[in-house]
Design a protein that fits this description.
- Its EC number is 1.3.98.3.
- Residues 49-282 form the Radical SAM core domain.
- It catalyses: coproporphyrinogen III + 2 S-adenosyl-L-methionine = protoporphyrinogen IX + 2 5'-deoxyadenosine + 2 L-methionine + 2 CO2.
- Monomer.
- It holds the Pfam family HemN_C.
- By secondary structure, this protein is an alpha/beta fold.
- The protein folds into two domains: 1-27 and 369-464, Arc Repressor Mutant, subunit A; 31-326, pyruvate-formate lyase- activating enzyme.
- The chain has 17 helices and 20 strands.
- It has helices at 10-16, 38-51, 84-101, 123-136, 161-167, 181-187, 193-205, 224-237, 268-284, 301-308, 348-356, 370-385, 390-397, 401-404, 406-411, 413-417, 438-443; strands at 55-61, 63-64, 76-77, 107-115, 138-139, 146-151, 171-177, 210-217, 241-246, 288-291, 294-296, 312-314, 317-319, 325-329, 334-337, 340-344, 362-367, 387-389, 421-424, 427-430.
- The strands form five sheets. Strands 1, 4, 5, 6, 7, 8, 9, 10, 11 and 14 form a ten-stranded mixed beta sheet that branches. Strands 15-16-17 form a three-stranded antiparallel beta sheet.
- Strand 10 (288-291) and strand 11 (294-296) form a beta hairpin.
- Helix 3 crosses helix 11 and helix 8 (224-237) packs parallel to helix 9 (268-284).
- The chain starts with 9 loop residues before the first helix and ends in a 21-residue tail after the last helix.
- The relative contact order is 0.17.
């Protein structure tokens, strides 16, 4: 693979900065069907078991004790820690159900707890859930797995990290968002540099393999200067991975965002300037731009996976474990099992009722056709590696790429003329100017959009 590089092309970014999917899956969740049958899921599980593929487990812990106004996650805001106990019991029921369905000798190469705030659970509850997970599935006990947990650094005492390391977590993801006090007050999210540094120091002392930090640009009262100050503090903390997400203000969908005054939000031009400066700053600091809004140190496994050609993208974003079937547990979580995506109930009452009745909590999903799987592979190759070889797809899928995708290749010609990608003798290569617009390029191969190259509907965030 060629070395990653990114060039900021202001004119092209302004021309193509539209709304579009993030492609953590293809088809995206907007294509899921409400009437998804148990028979389709059972068939997918049978094929999954026959394959013997390793597993990836995701647990959604929806609780937060305070609300962050920008958040669009499926969450339950409560200060009552006793709310965790009945939910924990439901997770244990779901674990038992999946353990009965799957060959549990299959190794769990990846595990991730997200939320919400997973450390809303007490240390005893964390131990309990991990113990039941080990009883039901084959976790790796040699610390070689990729086992991550998301934490709120303003709500986690450093001494609690010992419990997380003890039960098997070896990667820590911190939602920093911004260090500027005015911005923090506007979004009701507080964590100081001192608090984050204490967590980083303790995590490294305990032997966590990797530290990830999440930032957001486009928050109220942010400016290019204030974001630059946050980035300098973050770079000094030296995370192995860093994500810089674009804040999507959609108060019509997320009630908490109505607490944010629109007049305090930076303009689209100011947001672009922030992201431009941030990319330059991170590249100068030695980070590799993995793609979209993700960065990593060159020696991090994410950067190595991209360099060696096995980087993948799934519901957790960029990942090194594309060969795993993903089993997701908890409210609203999405599993990817063989050629099926299934999502659990988003409503906690319905989720709980299903499990209490001994029923599968998955309520909606989609069966991927052969065409879906082909297009998913094309989009994954482009969004992870920024190039694709026609012959590889011809051999793997039994097609003639140029004939099969004649309409899509024609729709890409204006983007080629604008220098976003190049047609090579036997493939496509995204240029350095096109890397930031990779979502727009991928949209051309999305059969679920109205026509190839059409603007996506407003339910999606903007590309930049």
């Amino acid at each position: 693979m060629r070395a990653a590089n990114t060039t900021w092309n202001q004119a092209m970014i302004e021309r193509y900065d539209m709304a579009g999917p993030r492609y953590t899956s293809y088809p995206t969740a907007t294509a899921f069907q409400e009437r998804f049958g148990q028979a389709e899921l059972d068939s997918a599980i049978a094929r999954s078991n026959a394959s013997g593929r390793p597993l990836s487990l995701y647990f959604h812990i929806p609780f937060c004790d305070t609300i962050c106004f920008y958040c669009g996650c499926n969450k339950i805001v409560t200060a009552n820690k006793r709310r965790a106990r009945p939910y924990l019991e439901l997770l244990k029921r779901e674990l038992s159900l999946r353990a009965w369905q799957f060959h549990t000798a299959r190794p769990v190469q990846q595990l991730h707890w997200g939320g919400g705030t997973p450390t809303f659970l007490s240390d005893a509850e964390i131990r309990e859930l991990m113990h039941v997970t080990r009883e039901c599935f084959s976790l790796l006990e040699d610390d070689s797995g990729d086992y991550a947990i998301e934490v709120h650094p303003g709500r986690l005492a450093p001494e609690r990290l010992a419990t997380l390391r003890e039960v098997g977590f070896n990667r820590l993801s911190m939602g920093i968002q911004d260090f500027d006090p005015r911005v923090q007050k506007a979004v009701n999210r507080f964590n100081s540099v001192t608090e984050v540094r204490a967590l980083c120091d303790e995590a490294r002392r305990l032997g966590f393999h990797s530290l990830n930090m999440d930032l957001i640009y486009g928050l109220p009262h942010q400016s290019e200067a204030t974001l630059a100050g946050t980035l300098q503090e973050v770079i000094a903390l030296a995370p192995d991975r860093l994500s810089l997400f674009n804040y999507a203000h959609m108060p019509q969908l997320f009630k908490s965002q109505r607490q944010i005054p629109e007049e305090a939000l930076p303009s689209p031009a100011e947001k672009l300037a922030m992201f431009h400066s941030a990319i330059d700053t991170l590249l100068e600091a030695g980070y590799v731009h993995i793609g979209m809004d993700h960065f990593a140190r060159p020696d991090d496994r994410l950067a190595q996976a991209q360099a060696e050609g096995y980087l993948h993208r799934n519901f957790q974003g960029y990942t090194t474990h594309g060969d795993c079937d993903l089993l997701a547990f908890g409210l609203s979580s999405i599993s990817a099992i063989d050629n099926v995506y299934v999502q659990n109930h988003k409503d906690i009452v319905r989720y709980g009722h299903s499990l209490e009745q001994g029923q599968d909590p998955a309520c909606r999903g989609v069966v991927l056709s052969a065409e879906d799987q082909l297009r998913r592979a094309v989009i994954n190759q482009l969004i992870c590696h920024f190039e694709l070889d026609f012959d590889t797809f011809n051999r793997s899928f039994g097609i003639e790429f140029e004939r099969h995708f004649a309409a899509e290749l024609a729709a890409l010609e204006p983007l080629m003329a604008d220098g976003l990608l190049q047609r090579e003798e036997q493939g496509l290569r995204v240029t350095d100017s096109g890397r930031l617009l990779i979502r727009r390029i991928c949209m051309t191969f999305d059969a679920y959009l109205a026509v190839p190259g059409a603007t996506a509907q407003p339910r999606y965030s903007r590309i930049i």
